[in-house]
Write a structure and sequence with these properties.
Layout: H1 3-14, H2 16-23, H3 32-51, H4 60-74, H5 79-88, H6 91-100, H7 111-127, E1 135-140, H8 146-159, H9 161-167, E2 168-173, H10 177-185, H11 207-215, E3 218-220
Parallel strand pairs: 1-2, 2-3
Protein backbone atom coordinates (compact mmCIF):
# COMPACT_ATOMS: atom_id res chain seq x y z
CA UNK A 1 0.00 0.00 0.00
CA UNK A 2 1.36 3.43 -0.91
CA UNK A 3 2.21 6.12 1.62
CA UNK A 4 -0.60 8.29 0.19
CA UNK A 5 -3.16 5.52 0.77
CA UNK A 6 -1.87 5.00 4.31
CA UNK A 7 -2.43 8.69 5.04
CA UNK A 8 -5.99 8.58 3.69
CA UNK A 9 -6.78 5.50 5.77
CA UNK A 10 -5.34 7.09 8.91
CA UNK A 11 -7.27 10.35 8.35
CA UNK A 12 -10.52 8.45 7.86
CA UNK A 13 -9.92 6.31 10.93
CA UNK A 14 -9.18 9.44 13.00
CA UNK A 15 -12.52 11.00 11.99
CA UNK A 16 -15.34 8.56 12.87
CA UNK A 17 -18.03 10.94 11.65
CA UNK A 18 -16.43 11.18 8.20
CA UNK A 19 -15.97 7.40 8.08
CA UNK A 20 -19.64 6.78 8.99
CA UNK A 21 -20.80 9.32 6.43
CA UNK A 22 -18.74 7.65 3.72
CA UNK A 23 -20.14 4.21 4.61
CA UNK A 24 -23.69 5.60 4.37
CA UNK A 25 -22.96 7.38 1.12
CA UNK A 26 -23.44 10.81 2.76
CA UNK A 27 -21.36 13.97 2.54
CA UNK A 28 -18.89 14.53 5.36
CA UNK A 29 -20.08 16.87 8.15
CA UNK A 30 -19.20 20.54 7.66
CA UNK A 31 -16.11 21.52 9.70
CA UNK A 32 -16.95 23.83 12.60
CA UNK A 33 -14.58 26.55 11.37
CA UNK A 34 -16.29 26.59 7.97
CA UNK A 35 -19.70 26.78 9.61
CA UNK A 36 -18.58 29.68 11.80
CA UNK A 37 -17.23 31.57 8.78
CA UNK A 38 -20.49 31.08 6.95
CA UNK A 39 -22.58 32.19 9.94
CA UNK A 40 -20.33 35.22 10.43
CA UNK A 41 -20.74 36.25 6.78
CA UNK A 42 -24.50 35.81 7.07
CA UNK A 43 -24.51 38.03 10.17
CA UNK A 44 -22.61 40.76 8.31
CA UNK A 45 -25.02 40.47 5.39
CA UNK A 46 -27.96 40.78 7.80
CA UNK A 47 -26.50 43.95 9.37
CA UNK A 48 -25.91 45.43 5.91
CA UNK A 49 -29.43 44.65 4.73
CA UNK A 50 -31.20 45.74 7.92
CA UNK A 51 -29.22 48.90 8.77
CA UNK A 52 -27.23 49.71 5.61
CA UNK A 53 -23.82 49.45 7.28
CA UNK A 54 -21.31 47.37 5.34
CA UNK A 55 -18.46 46.04 7.47
CA UNK A 56 -17.18 43.50 4.92
CA UNK A 57 -14.08 45.59 4.09
CA UNK A 58 -13.00 45.87 7.72
CA UNK A 59 -10.01 43.80 8.81
CA UNK A 60 -11.68 40.46 9.44
CA UNK A 61 -9.69 39.43 12.52
CA UNK A 62 -10.38 42.77 14.24
CA UNK A 63 -14.04 42.72 13.28
CA UNK A 64 -14.45 39.14 14.51
CA UNK A 65 -12.81 39.96 17.83
CA UNK A 66 -15.03 42.99 18.47
CA UNK A 67 -18.25 41.26 17.49
CA UNK A 68 -17.38 38.28 19.70
CA UNK A 69 -16.74 40.66 22.58
CA UNK A 70 -20.21 42.12 22.16
CA UNK A 71 -21.68 38.62 21.84
CA UNK A 72 -20.03 37.63 25.11
CA UNK A 73 -21.45 40.69 26.88
CA UNK A 74 -24.88 39.91 25.43
CA UNK A 75 -24.53 36.23 26.33
CA UNK A 76 -25.07 35.07 22.76
CA UNK A 77 -23.47 31.66 22.21
CA UNK A 78 -23.26 31.79 18.41
CA UNK A 79 -23.52 34.15 15.45
CA UNK A 80 -26.97 32.72 14.76
CA UNK A 81 -28.07 33.48 18.33
CA UNK A 82 -26.70 37.00 18.05
CA UNK A 83 -28.56 37.60 14.80
CA UNK A 84 -31.75 36.51 16.58
CA UNK A 85 -30.99 39.04 19.32
CA UNK A 86 -30.56 41.84 16.78
CA UNK A 87 -33.89 40.94 15.21
CA UNK A 88 -35.72 41.23 18.52
CA UNK A 89 -33.82 44.07 20.23
CA UNK A 90 -33.19 47.20 18.15
CA UNK A 91 -31.13 48.79 20.95
CA UNK A 92 -28.51 46.08 20.52
CA UNK A 93 -27.39 47.66 17.25
CA UNK A 94 -26.09 50.77 19.03
CA UNK A 95 -24.21 48.64 21.54
CA UNK A 96 -22.69 46.61 18.72
CA UNK A 97 -21.65 49.66 16.70
CA UNK A 98 -20.10 51.28 19.77
CA UNK A 99 -18.02 48.12 20.19
CA UNK A 100 -16.97 47.88 16.55
CA UNK A 101 -16.27 51.56 15.91
CA UNK A 102 -13.32 53.12 17.69
CA UNK A 103 -13.48 56.92 17.66
CA UNK A 104 -10.00 58.19 16.84
CA UNK A 105 -10.14 61.93 16.29
CA UNK A 106 -8.71 65.24 17.43
CA UNK A 107 -8.55 68.91 16.57
CA UNK A 108 -6.34 69.50 13.51
CA UNK A 109 -5.29 65.84 13.42
CA UNK A 110 -2.72 65.24 10.65
CA UNK A 111 -1.31 68.75 10.79
CA UNK A 112 0.21 68.73 7.27
CA UNK A 113 -3.20 68.02 5.74
CA UNK A 114 -4.79 70.89 7.63
CA UNK A 115 -1.98 73.24 6.64
CA UNK A 116 -2.52 72.38 2.96
CA UNK A 117 -6.27 72.76 3.38
CA UNK A 118 -5.90 76.19 4.96
CA UNK A 119 -3.23 77.57 2.63
CA UNK A 120 -4.27 76.06 -0.69
CA UNK A 121 -7.79 74.66 -0.73
CA UNK A 122 -9.84 77.15 1.28
CA UNK A 123 -8.55 80.35 -0.42
CA UNK A 124 -9.23 78.82 -3.84
CA UNK A 125 -12.69 77.68 -2.76
CA UNK A 126 -13.64 81.08 -1.37
CA UNK A 127 -12.28 82.89 -4.45
CA UNK A 128 -14.45 80.75 -6.73
CA UNK A 129 -17.68 81.76 -4.98
CA UNK A 130 -19.83 84.87 -5.02
CA UNK A 131 -19.09 86.99 -1.92
CA UNK A 132 -22.61 86.45 -0.60
CA UNK A 133 -22.87 82.77 -1.54
CA UNK A 134 -23.42 80.25 1.26
CA UNK A 135 -20.63 77.73 1.88
CA UNK A 136 -21.81 74.26 2.87
CA UNK A 137 -19.47 71.46 3.93
CA UNK A 138 -20.22 67.88 4.94
CA UNK A 139 -17.93 66.07 7.38
CA UNK A 140 -18.85 62.36 7.16
CA UNK A 141 -17.79 59.99 9.92
CA UNK A 142 -16.92 62.93 12.14
CA UNK A 143 -17.00 61.06 15.47
CA UNK A 144 -17.27 63.51 18.39
CA UNK A 145 -16.91 66.52 16.10
CA UNK A 146 -13.31 67.70 16.41
CA UNK A 147 -12.95 67.66 12.62
CA UNK A 148 -16.15 69.68 12.19
CA UNK A 149 -14.98 72.39 14.58
CA UNK A 150 -11.51 72.36 13.04
CA UNK A 151 -13.10 73.09 9.66
CA UNK A 152 -15.10 75.92 11.20
CA UNK A 153 -11.96 77.48 12.68
CA UNK A 154 -10.06 77.21 9.39
CA UNK A 155 -12.90 78.97 7.60
CA UNK A 156 -13.10 81.58 10.36
CA UNK A 157 -9.46 82.42 9.73
CA UNK A 158 -9.97 82.47 5.97
CA UNK A 159 -13.15 84.58 5.94
CA UNK A 160 -13.06 86.33 9.26
CA UNK A 161 -15.11 85.16 12.20
CA UNK A 162 -18.25 87.23 11.57
CA UNK A 163 -18.47 86.34 7.86
CA UNK A 164 -17.88 82.69 8.68
CA UNK A 165 -20.81 82.62 11.10
CA UNK A 166 -22.96 84.35 8.48
CA UNK A 167 -22.05 82.28 5.38
CA UNK A 168 -20.84 78.84 6.47
CA UNK A 169 -22.87 75.75 7.27
CA UNK A 170 -21.02 72.56 8.23
CA UNK A 171 -22.86 69.26 8.58
CA UNK A 172 -21.32 66.56 10.72
CA UNK A 173 -22.62 62.97 10.58
CA UNK A 174 -21.62 59.70 12.18
CA UNK A 175 -23.36 56.38 12.82
CA UNK A 176 -22.22 56.48 16.46
CA UNK A 177 -25.16 58.17 18.20
CA UNK A 178 -23.26 58.67 21.44
CA UNK A 179 -20.48 60.51 19.57
CA UNK A 180 -23.10 62.62 17.80
CA UNK A 181 -24.44 63.71 21.18
CA UNK A 182 -21.00 64.93 22.23
CA UNK A 183 -20.63 66.85 18.98
CA UNK A 184 -24.07 68.45 19.26
CA UNK A 185 -23.27 69.74 22.75
CA UNK A 186 -20.06 71.29 21.48
CA UNK A 187 -18.19 70.03 24.54
CA UNK A 188 -14.53 69.08 24.63
CA UNK A 189 -11.73 68.48 27.08
CA UNK A 190 -9.13 71.22 27.67
CA UNK A 191 -6.37 68.83 26.62
CA UNK A 192 -7.98 68.36 23.22
CA UNK A 193 -8.33 72.11 22.65
CA UNK A 194 -4.59 72.64 23.12
CA UNK A 195 -4.09 72.23 19.35
CA UNK A 196 -6.28 75.21 18.40
CA UNK A 197 -4.38 77.66 16.18
CA UNK A 198 -3.43 80.73 18.18
CA UNK A 199 -4.78 83.05 15.50
CA UNK A 200 -8.25 81.57 15.94
CA UNK A 201 -8.28 82.63 19.57
CA UNK A 202 -6.53 85.91 18.99
CA UNK A 203 -9.58 88.14 19.44
CA UNK A 204 -11.32 86.19 22.17
CA UNK A 205 -10.68 85.72 25.84
CA UNK A 206 -9.82 82.03 25.47
CA UNK A 207 -9.37 79.29 22.92
CA UNK A 208 -12.47 77.56 24.24
CA UNK A 209 -14.53 80.69 23.51
CA UNK A 210 -13.06 80.81 20.01
CA UNK A 211 -14.17 77.26 19.40
CA UNK A 212 -17.64 78.08 20.71
CA UNK A 213 -18.07 81.05 18.38
CA UNK A 214 -16.88 79.03 15.40
CA UNK A 215 -19.18 76.26 16.50
CA UNK A 216 -22.31 78.29 15.82
CA UNK A 217 -21.86 77.46 12.16
CA UNK A 218 -21.92 73.69 12.79
CA UNK A 219 -24.97 71.48 12.56
CA UNK A 220 -25.89 67.82 12.82
CA UNK A 221 -27.54 66.03 9.92
Amino acid sequence: MSEHSDRETTQTRDDPASELAQLNGEASPEPESTRDDRDFDELLAFIRESRGFDFTNYKRSTLTRRIRKRMMDARAASYVDYRDLLETNADEYNLLFNTILINVTGFFRDAEVWTFLQREVMPELVASLDPAEEIRIWSAGCSTGEEVYSLAMVLAETLGLDECVERVKIYGTDIDEEACGTRARGSTRPRRSSRFPRSCARNTSSRTEASSRCGRTCASA
